[in-house]
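Researcher: Hi, I'm a grad student and pretty new to this. My advisor asked me to get structures for two proteins we've been looking at. I'm not sure of the right format, so I'll just paste the first sequence and hope you can take it from there.
Model: That works fine. Here's the first sequence with its structure tokens right after it:
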Amino acid sequence: MSNTISPIIEVKELIEIHQLETLVIVDASNETSYKAKHLDGALFVNLNTQLSNIKEDVSIGGRHPLTTIKQFSQTLKSLGINEKSHVVIYDDKNGANSAARFWWMLRAIGHDKVQVLNGGIQEAERKGFLINSELVEAKKTASYNFANYKLPQADISEVENYSQDKNYIVVDVREEERYLGIKEPLDLVAGHIPGAINIPFSTNLDPNGLFKTSKELNKKYQVVFENIKSDHIIVHCGSGVTACHTLLAIAYAGLDIPKLYVGSWSEWSRNNKNIATINTNF
């Protein structure tokens, strides 16, 4: 890994750098929660309007396609984020709401100084970090210029070609009941991509909702991946958001970041592709 800092930051560490001039704290939960209370100095980022380029046709790119480079550059400018910023992101779902997605997007453009707050706002409040509902204005900054998203991605064709190839691993991070096709609360069809294995993102966390240690996560994913290289590993979820939680955990484990299938189940299930369920033999 080339990360210069850990992708996870503890509340104690954030308290220590709270007055850092280059620090930008971002709340990636939801607007209602943010307006009610947020970390002191935190700005808000919206998954649907700032971290996604949502289209009417979900079959093309899924429910949360990535923004264009121009759109993301505008979002960063609106948050006062530039090349020198130390960005700390949190949400209210242990990083699985949108914090990990924003982390992935920043890492994908080559921004190294970005971390996700372990335990989110709940842990920060428990540890005594200042919480309020005060209006926060972003610092004025020049545009953040970058050419593309550099972290590896897989499209629907690649997933279809390699999902049942023994030299590849496709990881579905959704909860087991969705993977098995027992229930599907968000998309039109229940089930999973044939050949995909299920490692729910929740298994990245300990019973207290904090990320397991880097050593524990390293051991966990080394066992799963064995000798498969990162460019032969594809991670997905429902719409390319929660999958980033597992990519974050893998990075925290000191391993190379695998490919993200942004379209995920929301795209796959709308394109007449083969679908597996608990009753499917394959």
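Researcher: Oh nice, that was easy. Here's the second one.
Model: And its structure:
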Amino acid sequence: MGPGNQTHVSEFLLLGLSEKPEQQLPLFGLFLGMYMVTVVGNLIIMLAIGSDSHLHTPMYFFLSNLSFVDLCLVSTTVPKMLVNIITDSKVISYSGCLAQMYFFMIFAFLDNFLLTVMAYDRFVAICHPLHYVSIMSPRICGLLVLTSWTISILNSTFHTLMMMRLSFCAKRELPHFFCDISQVTKLSCSDALINDILVYFAASLLGILPLTGILFSYGQICSSLLRFPSPGGKYKAFSTCGSHLSVVSLFYGTGLGVYLSSSATHSSWKISVASVMYSVVTPMLNPFIYSMRNKDMKDAIRRVISKMPSSH
């Protein structure tokens, strides 16, 4: 590609989920509602865990971190999309696009690692209950979360720096509602083969290894549950794992859908819809999933909600 066909791109155009004018208002209302539910739901989860001393355990410590990350994940993409819809503008600056891409990757991979850490926590609690307190000490829990943040930030920083070395053509339309790294790379005039290989390698490595750890943990948990003598003990153990397993299935199912659809289809609309499922719908549903099957969580949420009117 000759230099005459390259230009310095200062902004991109986010085409969103639809370009039809009559669909913009329904989309705005739908995503505004989903965003508000996500924000309120995850804030309540964090407040409930922080205010209830009975929930100051490793499992709820990780859950509060997951709620915070989910809140950040949707706040990285949805507000910009809502602004673009209401102002009838599709523009996002080059630096804004890189920033959105950077933070989205951090929080998406953090979700991945935290779900793995939570599976490990359940594995220790059910398979090694006598050593749970010593294994899952506050120091170890903090170290696990810190490691998750460190790996996510380093991975995101590396891919963002690799993206900055690319030059872009005059075409600047992104068929997505946020700056997805794979979609932005497709607009490059440079040879982006190395970028593509590194993205798929990192996604495979940092996705498959945690998923393998989750599957191993739940394989051991199921084996232990079969040896439980009382049905009541089995039910209690399963109830503590059921919520997490539901979230894992939802996150990895939709995330894998995006990965496979981007490889198997050229339909940008299908890829965008699949992205909505794991980046918007999953964070919205997580608070409901974790509170529905957990009596302690329900009681803590009721106490938080009951205090809200009395503060006026």
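Researcher: Is there anything I should tell my advisor about the second?
Model: You could mention this: The beta strands are 11-14, 91-93, 173-174.
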